[in-house]
């Protein structure tokens, strides 16, 4: 029986935890996740999806603010650590606490897109292929040697939400096999080529501001990468306008950033054509369809470019 100490926080990470807990020959000695956080407009303190899953499974859970000065004696013992979307740096002194180190799922074809936002950055850059890497963690960010990579074609309408789900599903059987092979000394990881490495950064709400002087494909890729969070937005009459659902359109009309309607559809002109808006949310209001919005704001026209 191989014992695993699991590190994770997100909903996708909870899916992996549940799969490992169901796998014959594995036992989960404990789970490390981020502390409960205030979320939503009401700032309700909420446990992470991994904590919720762990408690349902009856597993011991640790929720440290960070691991910098974490008391090692409180860590559950394990043959190996597994890490997926944990969100905090794990110091080398903790990585050294297990005989087989820490395996990490990284949702990119390393060494491309090292860092915290590989799926978002892949979509924002218009890539047509991505994948998942099963790697051995070391002290540097996403730098350790790779056990296995699985490739995946990106659908033109994939968003961060759909692509995360696909990559997580792809990673689970590969992770199970790597854990077994690594602990039985049947495989050896291969070092990454650092010369080919690229790095992606943490995203903020400001990254979602639309530049209407870009093409409709570039704007749509921004939307795909930033859905569901932080989303994309523009300004209208001095207020932030979130665009919740859009599609690129070949229809042309007016100057870049100009708003126009055609056959009861709402468009904004881009550098090459336009973006059709189908759902949106004005600052301080609830989400609504473009049709409802236009009916409520008869004077909705002009430009969404900054004044």
Give a structural overview.
Helix 4 (118-124) packs antiparallel against helix 6. The chain has a seven-stranded mixed β-sheet. The chain starts with a strand and ends in an 11-residue tail after the last helix. Strand 10 (232-236) and strand 11 (239-249) form a beta hairpin. It is built from seven helices and 15 strands. The chain has helices at residues 11-22, 49-56, 92-95, 118-124, 160-183, 216-225, 290-296, and strands at 2-8, 26-32, 37-39, 44-46, 61-62, 80-84, 102-106, 129-136, 146-153, 232-236, 239-249, 259-262, 265-269, 274-282, 288-289. The protein has two domains: 2-196, Formyl transferase, N-terminal domain (Rossmann fold, 3-Layer(aba) Sandwich); 205-296, Formyl transferase, C-terminal domain (Methionyl-tRNA Fmet Formyltransferase, Chain A, domain 2, Roll). It is of the alpha/beta class and 307 residues long.
Question: What are the main properties of this structure?
Answer:
single chain; 307 residues; alpha/beta; Rossmann fold; Methionyl-tRNA Fmet Formyltransferase, Chain A, domain 2; 7-stranded mixed β-sheet; 6-stranded antiparallel β-sheet; 23% helix; 27% strand
Give the helices and strands, then pairings.
Blueprint: E1 2-8, H1 11-22, E2 26-32, E3 37-39, E4 44-46, H2 49-56, E5 61-62, E6 80-84, H3 92-95, E7 102-106, H4 118-124, E8 129-136, E9 146-153, H5 160-183, H6 216-225, E10 232-236, E11 239-249, E12 259-262, E13 265-269, E14 274-282, E15 288-289, H7 290-296
Helix pairs in contact: 1-2, 1-5, 4-6
């Amino acid at each position: 029986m191989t014992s695993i100490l699991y590190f994770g926080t997100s909903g996708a990470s909870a899916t992996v935890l549940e799969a490992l807990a169901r796998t014959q020959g594995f036992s989960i000695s404990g789970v490390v996740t981020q502390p409960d956080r205030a979320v939503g407009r009401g700032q309700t303190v909420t446990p992470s999806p991994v904590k919720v899953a762990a408690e349902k499974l009856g597993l011991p859970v640790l929720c440290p603010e960070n691991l910098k000065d974490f008391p090692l004696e409180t860590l559950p013992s394990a043959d190996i650590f597994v890490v997926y979307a944990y969100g905090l740096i794990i110091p080398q002194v903790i990585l050294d606490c297990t005989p087989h180190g820490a395996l990490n799922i990284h949702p990119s074809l390393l060494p491309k897109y090292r860092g915290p936002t590989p799926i978002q950055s892949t979509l924002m850059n218009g890539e047509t292929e991505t994948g998942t890497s099963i790697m051995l963690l070391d002290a540097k960010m996403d730098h350790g040697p790779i056990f296995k990579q699985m490739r995946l074609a990106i659908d033109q309408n994939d968003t961060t939400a759909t692509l995360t789900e696909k990559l997580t599903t792809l990673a689970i059987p590969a992770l199970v096999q790597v854990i077994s092979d690594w602990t039985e000394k049947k495989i050896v990881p291969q070092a990454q080529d650092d010369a080919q490495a690229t790095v992606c950064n943490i995203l903020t709400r400001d990254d979602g501001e639309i530049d209407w002087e870009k093409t409709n494909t570039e704007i749509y890729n921004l939307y795909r990468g930033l859905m569901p969070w932080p989303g994309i937005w523009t300004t209208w009459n001095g207020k932030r306008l979130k665009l919740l659902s859009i599609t690129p359109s070949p229809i042309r009309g007016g100057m870049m950033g100009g708003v126009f309607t055609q056959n009861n559809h709402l468009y904004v002109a881009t550098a090459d054509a336009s973006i059709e808006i189908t759902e949106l949310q004005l600052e301080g209001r609830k989400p609504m369809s473009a049709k409802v919005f236009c009916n409520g704001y008869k004077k909705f026209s002009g430009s969404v470019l900054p004044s």
